[in-house]
Protein 1
Amino acid sequence: MSDFLLIHGAMHGAWCWRDLVPELNLRGHRVQAIDLPGHGGDMTPISKITLDLYADAILDAIERDFAGGPVQLVGHSMAGYPISLAAERAPDKIARLIYLCAYVPAAGQSLADMRKSAPRQPLLPALIRSEDGKSFRVDPAKTEELFYHDCPEGTAAYANMRLCAQAVAPQAVPCPLGENYASVPRSYIRCTDDRTIPPEFQVTMTHDWPAADVYEMETSHSPFFAAPQELARLLSQITG
């Protein structure tokens, strides 16, 4: 049995793990999913949200829900950055970092920088920026093709009711990492039919990782909806 803390990606919330949590529970794991600041039920104002605040929320959840850990820390998409920062701050609280079609921080690069360096930017045409430039949303008419094209019928409608504005600030700063981060085991799950983060860029981000630490799923950017049983099985396999 493992303890899992699930961290959602941009614009999402703990709600996106709806189908995965019970599948992990059936396999005997203890699981929590949280809303990062400004997401889901958390009402933190956009102007207050930072990458540091995201990492604080993760470490607070480990203390609150798992008595300090260590936990299997799963980060989807954008969450690759805050889970990495959490590991740098408190490596003893994290048994393993698991990047689920997520950004792996590169030295000196913000998440926005990494997105721009990808060979394609399928998300960019769908973004709707706020008037003050501090946040963005995705055009609801395009969420299905970007995030949920292989998910059960009704998934996009369910998500569109819950997707929130995404603060720009956490994605505009590099993630300072050092020996603490390097000491934490890590795994990556690539999604080969991802229409948000190009699959070939997921390969680039993990090109120098040991083959044993990289896995693949033939799904969209949302395997927690598209194949929750398979994802739960794979997470169980990764954590032994």
Note: The radius of gyration is 16 Å.
Protein 2
Amino acid sequence: MELKPRRLLSLDFFRGLTVATMILVNNPGSWGHIYAPLEHAEWNGCTPTDLVFPFFLFIVGVSIAYAMGSKKLDPSSHNKTILKALKRGLILFGLGIFLSIFPRKFSDFDFIEAIKHVRIPGVLQRIGVVFFISSILFLKLSEKNIFRAIIIILITYWALMIFVPVPGVGYANLEKETNLGAWLDRTILTEAHLWKSSKTWDPEGILSTLPAIATGLFGILVGVYLKRKDVDPAKKIAWLFSVGTVSVLAGLLWDLEFPINKALWTSSYVLYTGGLATIVLALSYWIIDVNNYNRFTKPFVVYGVNAITVFFVSGLMPRLLNMIKIKQANGDEAGALSWFYQTFFPPYFSPINASLAYAITFILFFYVILWIMYKKNIIIKV
């Protein structure tokens, strides 16, 4: 018998698990002391941390299928729905820009200078773009054509990166600073608006957003299939596990020629991470929604229903707290959050465990706030 609730508990669980992991890897106590699985791959390859962002974009796609399914059946509502999607996409993009521009010190903040050097790409910006474009494609295309769009995007991106000579370099390549995407970012955005850690390329750059859209579309197709009422849950799970496994294998095979790479968001990376996300969601659906084993889900559901809100605030709060200066025993001043870390973690743990303990404390702190919001049914929709 098919499940009646439109909202999947397993989807909220998966979303919450993903955003909690995002916060964990983004907020270590010390960037110099991090366990290897909590770091991104140096370039090619994929660590558990490299799964987090594509999982979230995949979930965005699944959510589109659930939230806009009825709108798709009513063409007269498409324009209104697209405008709403545009508004939400712009809000997400704007929040990302705000985090990029938000000063760490108000005393020496120059707004005009900040605008001149603000990083334009970013995580929230990419989520906004992927959400908007994926919403349009979902409303306007059939499932078969969405599948074709994914294939076209992945092959086109592969061909561009592998065969198109990079201006100024003279040949196609996949290196950090000399690949086609890096050249396009520097040409259009200029180095002033790119990732401050490199200035010559950006992990959320313009060209790599194209395959990121394919990740969102991948999630849409999975969401459409999960919503079907004419398919038994057991058959859904079997098919999703099969599709996920085939996609992972296809990604690994393509990796031999077009390496799995998060910063480039390569086509092999889309297939590999999309397949793993499908498997994780299918497993969660089977355990949580079909068999009703859901007692362990509450902490992650609490995170999942306010995912964007907690991600944004978790990026904003450290900057606000570190504006508060506390004098240390040696006479130097430290930001409040830095003082908190140095006072309560390194004295009692090894460096790497102190860094991890701080990150876990960060997650627990937000869990308390989110739990109160959840109990009061406060859901901030961005």
Note: The first strand starts at residue 325 and ends at 327.
Protein 3
Amino acid sequence: MTVTESVRDALEMGPEKVLSHLHPEGSFDLADHAVPTGREEVWRFTPLKRLRGLHADAPFAGPSATTTHNAPKGVRVVQVEGQEARDLRGVSGLVPSSRFTARVLAEVPSTLLVDVAAEAEVAEPVRVEVVGHDVETTEAAHVVLRFGAFSKAVVVLNHTGSAALAQVVEVVVGDGAQVSVISLQDWDDDAVHLTQHEAVVGRDASYKHVAISFGGDVVRMDCNVHYSGPGGSAELLGLYFADEGQHLEHRLFADHDAPHTRSNVVYKGALQGDGARAVWVGNVLIRKVAEGIETYEENRNLVLTDGCQADSVPNLEIETGEIEGAGHASAVGRFDDNQLFYLRSRGIEESEARRLVVHGFFNDLIRKIGVPELEDQLVTTVEAELAKNVGRLTGATPVVAGEVAPTVVA
């Protein structure tokens, strides 16, 4: 394993001095966060000019989007303000490492709190519907999902309509809890959504996060997880479908800061149409204290037409060799010729064969979501996306940028 001289020198100064973007200097002070220029490692893929200033200093006007929800037995859903809202800022352990997260925590006056009682077993999903009405109004929101010890629950965040939204979602998973958080970005074509999901997973708890992005002009989601005790497990799943001109960006960070923890990341995406762009960056940090951990991350991209671009960048940083296992897989490609030949040889028309291959590509991931009505909805949505380019699905050669080897530090 090769370590550069600069990294080796940093390691000699101690674990907190590693020269890596996986060790950001967070701060609640807005003055500590410059406006991104696009030259920063964590912003180099994002089309900043299309973010309507959400990453910088666009005014956070009063909410134009409407939010509705249900509240099954054992769940409290409430919009809190004042000191109760301030007490929830950073409840997940989040210390802002970007200007937009620092602004959201400092400037948004209220917080949507979804509070699941300890030991509650919630029979139906908690659904939070966010509907945008005006993309010209830049706005922000803070959401906290708090799951009590040994609770079992599913929360679905569904985003539709037209909006320009900066959002911070904090998730606290209590010891022994078994929870799922599903975030759908099914916006109208002009929407802009800049969001960070930050989760802390308790001792022996199980956390599933599912990110599903179909709509919007630009959607960037940062999904981070760390652990407050040993034995915690995180499964991070994602599904996205980028159409002509869309930019869909997903960034993952699994910070193994407790021993005997686990993380498993699987993201799959398809691209079609001129200018369709997908970015996936998977970061895993295994700290010195995280002995006995196991982690794996995978990203697959299927290019359906010419003119698309996909970036798939896995990063793995290891500070201890006392682990169970760590690995990654990343790929961008066109249709599998063998699969197409198999289907065509059985009399299936080429367009139908390609449609079946796409469904097969997504199907195993969709079935892991665990909410049957949502799984059926996604199958229908994939079908609708494919219908946009009937007759154009080709064996296109993918345009790939940023296919970067992992960063490994020992």
Note: Residues 350-366 form the longest helix (17 residues).
